[in-house]
Amino acid sequence: MRQIFTLCPHVVPPNPACRAPRPRGMAGLGAFILSLILAVLPAQAIETTDALGRQVTVATPVRRIVALNSDSLEILRLLKAQDRIVGVYTEIDREPAFWGALTALPKIGGWRTPNLEAIADLAPDLVLTYSRNPGEEFDRKMAALGIPVLRLDFYRLATLENEVKRLGELLGKIDEARAFCDWHASHLALIRNRVAQVSHHPDVYIESYSDLSTVGPASGAHEMCLLAGGRNIAEDTVLPYPKVTPEWVLAQNPEIIVKAAAWSNGYQAGDASGFNARRDAIMKRPVWSTIPAVQNGRVHVMDSAIWTGPRALIGVAWLAHWFYPQRFADVDPNRWHEAYLERFQGIACQGVYTSDLLLKEIR
Amino acid sequence: MNATDTITLAYRRRSNARIWFILATGLVTAVMAILALCVGASGMRLTDVAAALFADSGRDHGIVWMLRMPRIVLACLVGFGLGTAGAVFQAILRNPLASPYTLGVGSGAGFGAVTVIIFFGGMHRWAVAGGAFACAMLSAAVILAVARLRQASTETMILGGIAQMFLFSSLTSLFQYMGTMDQVHEIVFWFFGSLSKAGWPEIALVAVMVGGPLPYLLHRAWDFDLLTAGDESATALGVDVGRLRLHSVTAASLMTAGCICFAGVIGFIGLVAPHITRMIIGGDHRYLLLASGLVGAVVVLLADTLGRTLWSPQVLPIGIVTSFIGVPFFFYLLIKQKKAYW
């Protein structure tokens, strides 16, 4: 069914106007005829590519969107398209301060296991979700209802700008998309150019949410570390999130340790105490006092909000700042974050996203 | 030599063989522990390890005493605890499929851990372990209460345990379903089991919970033997079956909860270690309890050592490797066994 839908651009999803009760009177009749014409006339269908490289056809204009995860929701707000969102994932309730009025929108279930009926009930023109979640059958079932599903992964730095542009074109928000992509690209280029000039790349141990689970080359965090000029000590592993022994970390002598903090909700954090506690716990692990990173106080904790996802750039800025304190002394990741939140998200800049610096002596 | 003497001699011989088996398994455990102490990701040489053992401080000393040794000791304790508890559960419930998790203790522990991870942020490992322990004991208490109130049979206890297992699994799945990506990540790793989180204070606690109930269980070994003939026969021979069951389920559950609250749910070993042992030395509980524990310790220790060295630096979760090693060996014994032994 999905194939048929993709191949026939003239198949249009049911127009929500058709669901309204038939109005009475001449004006009502006119409105009814107009809505009939709107429903029958083929809307312009735009073909775009999803994160899996597949062609997806979406009828425009897209007026009703269901966002299945926080990343796509953030990008929709970035494109100033939040007024078109008609349904959101249930977990949005965890971050009321960050999402504001969007939390009041109808919920369509969890980001991995959405309720198809709830989505159908909202009669969206488009559903946005990740490339892998929910599974393949989701597309088929949505296609049967005439609802196109666009799978975009806004959590990968390498593809973020391209995906934002594609979505911007689809929604008629080309200027907004371009403004963000220009800002993003220029800031990323600044980091790239400076990192290109360094000769020594510090060895970094990156710890994911769970203790002693690091990140391999297949992960977004590895990509961030490379961009910021670090050498991931787990670069030779195969798994995306391998568990390692504390002894192995010791033996690698990392110069810097970075950990992603789960459950931190940085936007609502008043101070860095939660991040500092995690940092101190790492530094107190048995025998880790012999690791250069611990000895020099170069252990940092970062909020999951800027750890991969649409704000990975802010995370990369922090990493670069930590890896090369002198070279990036003039770069204040907090200012970048402020610009992003106020200019592109339209919300006040607040919150704490990292542990405090312990660095006594900047190299 | 008369017939009595012959029988006595045969009995002595069998007893001696069993004692030798226990001593040999103990020796294998010790040798494997020494081998495990010598391998690791830091590439220390044997001489370095030996020197570090007797050093007062330094990096090598730390690696040997604070990283490798706790892991090895915990592997032995967990293997021993689960093996012994499995033998006790199989005896009390008179069921070859019984394991330390049959009464829902394992899923109870999992539920407790997940609850702490989801609702209390899972910041501190003691909190997670405490939650796991509390819920594990709670599920054992529920089954015991049912058994005591209704004079329930072993079948009722097992059914109750299985029902409880499904309830706790569903609750765990529900929380997992509600959880964010980072929480799910943490939960998955808890269920894989890990021996690297515990330090000496935690291990001391595990040792108390595994070692504490052991004298009582060994003391009741005769009664477990009598119980194999059936509740009525055991009662006729003077065993207070209800009391025995109450006390030994409590003791074995305590052992199990102590093992899994810091190491996660390591499945299979508690089911199979007693069977492996029984196939080799028979079902006399005076020997079976200790020997099952030692067999469990050997398997878990071997699994952990392989798990952290085979694919280094990536660690294969202990729960997975344990099955990889134990199942083929179990099958081998099962096929080799000439008669139905249970």
CATH domain class name of the largest domain in chain A = Alpha Beta
Which blocks of ≥5 consecutive residues of chain B have pLDDT under 50? Answer: none
User: Biggest sheet of chain A, strands in spatial order?
Assistant: 4-3-5-6
What percentage of amino acids of chain B are in beta strands?
A: under 5%
**Order of helices and strands of chain B, N to C?**
HHHHHHHHHHHHHHH
Most residues in contact, chain pair and counts:
A-B, 32 and 33 residues
Q: Separation of termini of chain A?
A: 61 Å
Instruction: Give the amount of beta strand of chain A, in percent.
Output: 5-15%
CATH topology (level 3) name of the largest domain in chain A: Rossmann fold
CATH superfamily (homologous) name of the largest domain in chain A? Nitrogenase molybdenum iron protein domain
What can be said about the biggest beta sheet of chain A?
Answer: 4 strands, parallel
Task: Report how far the terminal alpha carbons of chain B are from each other.
Answer: 33 Å
Query: In CATH's first tier, which class of chain B applies?
Result: Mainly Alpha
Largest sheet of chain B: none
The tally of structural domains of chain A comes to 2
Integer average pLDDT of chain B: 87
Helix count of chain B equals 15
The CATH architecture assignment of chain B turns out to be Orthogonal Bundle
Mean pLDDT of chain A: 85
